[in-house]
Amino acid sequence: MSPTESATLAIHVEGLEHAFGDLEVLRGVDVAVERGSIVALLGSNGAGKTTLVRILATLLRPDGGTATVNGFDVVAEADQVRESISLTGQFAAVDDILTGRENLELVAQLRRLPDARGIADELLVRFSLADAGDRRVDTYSGGMRRRLDIAMSLVGDPPVIFLDEPTTGLDPQARQHVWESVKELATGGTTVLLTTQYLEEAEQLADQIAILHQHRIIADGTLAELKALLPPAEVVYVEKQPSLEDVFFAIVGDDDPATPGAEQEAAR
Predict the structure, then answer these.
(1) Which helix (H) or strand (E) holds 100?
(2) Rounded to an integer, what distance in angstroms lies between the CA atom of residue 58 and that of residue 196?
(3) What is the mean pLDDT of each run of 10 residues along the chain (268 residues)?
(4) Cα pseudo-dihedral 25, 67, 91, 126, rounded to 10
(5) First to last CA, the chain
(6) Quick one: how many helices (H) and strands (E) in the chain?
(7) Which CATH fold would you assign to the domain 3-266?
(8) What string of DSSP letters covers 251-265?
(9) What distance in Å separates the CA atoms of residue 225 and residue 241, rounded to the nearest whole number?
(10) I want to staple 195 with a disulfide (CB 3.0 to 4.6 A). Which of 49, 85, 168, 182 is the partner?
């Protein structure tokens, strides 16, 4: 790959290897991610998705191969990589006893950014949390907590964000809201690496899909390119029936519970 091509990449991985003792997890992984795009990393449990993300986030050292994030080597330039990224794990890393605004201000202060309150206000509006910004997070719904978690990841405008199975355990409405938030990230120029087990999530969000299987990337491309790997589809005319998700949204609407105790009341 030429230096010009490499400069357009937010993430570039070649021959990456990692093992935990005798357990081989990654074996010669290659992947390249364009700046400002969303790439979905698909794989079954134990495929190595989280291990790859942890290496890219400088939380693990690879046993072999190379990886760069925002142009910086994850081993030799780990500090610069950390300044370039944010990582959101499978569970929301928010403080329940603080308000949404206080969570955001705390992260801004830890990053030593000026005008922490202004940053919090902007992100609360951006993620449709302004009305709940002064409520304690323990009153938030699951979707609101996840949106706040993603908002906290954006404090300081990191050019690359890793989302490790961000919609695990969320209901269909909350999942839709998170999807909208992720799409907005890429629209604003942020590069997103998303790990997921949900194929529909990858279809909805990803510009690029990489399939990790048996320790390697076995397929990598756009959805159209991956579909082209299959034989031509047989055309069959059938009456389209609504899916259960269509029925669910038609009945309950698309409102995200935003009043204190809404989740507890809904669970009764």
Answers:
(1) helix 100-110
(2) 20
(3) 66 96 93 93 86 94 96 96 87 86 94 93 90 95 86 89 83 80 84 88 90 89 86 75 71 56 46
(4) -150
(5) 58
(6) 11, 10
(7) Rossmann fold (3.40.50)
(8) HH-SPPP-STTHHHH
(9) 27
(10) 49
pTM above 0.85, yes or no: no
Residue type, 162: F
- Hey, which bits of the chain come out as E strands? 9-20, 23-34, 38-42, 64-69, 72-73, 85-88, 160-164, 191-196, 208-213, 216-221
Cα distance between residue 16 and residue 30, in whole Å: 7
In contact, 65 and 215? CB cutoff 8 Å: no
Say how far apart CA 72 and CA 85 lie, in whole Å. Answer: 11
State the residue for tokens 């529909």: 200
Q: Whole-angstrom Cα distance, residue 184 to residue 153?
A: 14
Phi, psi of 116 (to 5 degrees): -60, -40
Give, in degrees to the nearest 5, the angle at Cα 176 between 171 and 179: 125
Q: How many residues are present in the chain? A: 268
User: Cβ(174)–Cβ(142) under 8 Å?
Assistant: yes
In angstroms and rounded to an integer, the radius of gyration of the C-alpha atoms of the chain is 20
Residue 203 token pair: 């279809």
Domain residue limits, the chain: 3-266
The answer to whether 177 touches 258, Cβ cutoff 8 Å, is no
160 within 8 A of 85, measured Cβ to Cβ:
yes
Query: Cα separation of 176 and 138, whole Å?
Result: 21
Q: Is residue 67 a contact partner of residue 16, using CB atoms and an 8 Å limit?
A: yes
Cβ-based neighbours of 173, under 8 Å, separated by 6 or more: 143, 249, 252, 254, 255, 256
